[in-house]
Amino acid sequence: MDRHKVKRQRLDRICEGIRPPIVNGPMPARPLVALLDGRDCTVEMPILKDVATVAFCDAQSTQEIHEKVLNEAVGALMYHTITLSRQDLEKFKALRVIVRIGSGYDNVDIKSAAELGIAVCNIPSSSVEETADSTLCHILNLYRRVTWLHQAMREGNRASSVEQIREVAGGAVRIRGETLGIIGLGRVGQAVALRAKSFGFNVIFYDPYLPDGVERSLGLQRVGTLQDLLMHSDCITLHCSLNEHNHHLINDFTIKQMRQGCFLVNTARGGLVDEKALAQALKEGRIRGTALDVHESEPFSFAQGPLKDAPNVICTPHTAWYSEQASIESREDAAKEIRRAITGHIPDALRNCVNKEYLLLAAQWSGIDPATVHPELNGAAAYRPITLASDFLRILED
Ligand SMILES: NC(=O)c1ccc[n+]([C@@H]2O[C@H](COP(=O)([O-])OP(=O)(O)OC[C@H]3O[C@@H](n4cnc5c(N)ncnc54)[C@H](O)[C@@H]3O)[C@@H](O)[C@H]2O)c1
């Protein structure tokens, strides 16, 4: 067979498997919007009913999502209990916007979404106060030992003499003068700092991504390195977003840089802490106590994983964000963002698009003749259209 014809056939086969970028344009007359990992749409429905059909999937993975949703949904609402990798995103054939009902979006591959023409939004204001309040509850609990005292009473311990009180409340520490180290001084981190100051904590923070001056506006002490923060804190609380650079930020090595017997609180993301290293440090008393709202594997179970036989652990099931008011507000805000996507132009009409930069880049590249672009140019090899283009070129050159 003609050599060029064989190459052309191979190229055609590859092209069949590639989804063309979604170009912004008019949406279908009555677009389908799906809540992926929940079943209650009563808050969203009144906001969307005149512009979209709203369905729920109640799925924990894309394998559980109905084909109609995969083929037709243009909008998706989601909580933190489902993950959308590139492979998952590719299953959606008409999707243009995803809104995370919450602030963290580490469970969505936002770069891949952009390359597939899908805008991803979050609700950054959601639950800032609730998460900060829950964090303070955890910190106070570690210092004042409320959970453990409650447990002791439940188990029949009736401390009455001073000696008995000393025994049951042993480990309780005065807060004034203690140093609280905050890793990640974003919305929640700042709210925690303000609250902690009023309890008498000396507050220090580490956040390499913030411009100079935040420490002045909030009256906090900034440290330049993670090591500085670890070495100078009596209690460390995590409030950074989870990203490709900080998985297991707290590990055996960084734990060894902490003060002997310090406390650790995590209401940010489970992936920030190596639970195996934490369990070991708790057993050895290097960490005196820990309070965790988020875990490496969720839903968390005390019966499984490295923390199952570790002492001085307080856990809550990723509920730091929850209050009835916060839940309703963030669902309303998410539905309004979907509405803006349906009635306006994506991404300009969106208020909290977290992959706008990638989306614009991907759109820019998809409008360029791939054959004229060198794959290394401007780091373009990281973007799918270019990777594919270089694949095309390689095949043609074979
Ligand atoms: N447990 C819950 O229910 C709950 C609720 C809300 C938010 N969260 C989580 O809390 C965290 C904070 O939320 P937010 O709304 O304040 O986010 P945010 O984006 O406002 O703040 C995150 C901060 O972390 C900083 N950061 C990123 N990587 C860092 C690193 N390696 N070291 C130090 N700082 C780093 C960023 O510069 C930013 O200032 C997120 O992980 C979010 O997912 C959890």
From TrEMBL:
InterPro entries: CtBP, CTBP_dehydrogenase, D-isomer_2_OHA_DH_cat_dom, D-isomer_DH_CS, D-isomer_DH_CS1, D-isomer_DH_NAD-bd, NAD(P)-bd_dom_sf. Residues 138-320 form the D-isomer specific 2-hydroxyacid dehydrogenase NAD-binding domain. Residues 41-355 form the D-isomer specific 2-hydroxyacid dehydrogenase catalytic domain. Pfam families: 2-Hacid_dh (PF00389), 2-Hacid_dh_C (PF02826). The gene is LOC106487161. Belongs to the D-isomer specific 2-hydroxyacid dehydrogenase family. CDD domains: CtBP_dh (cd05299). It is found in: Nucleus. Its main location: nucleus. PROSITE patterns: D_2_HYDROXYACID_DH_1, D_2_HYDROXYACID_DH_3. Keywords: Nucleus, Oxidoreductase. It comes from the Eukaryota. PANTHER family: C-TERMINAL BINDING PROTEIN-LIKE, C-TERMINAL-BINDING PROTEIN. This is C-terminal-binding protein 2 isoform X2.
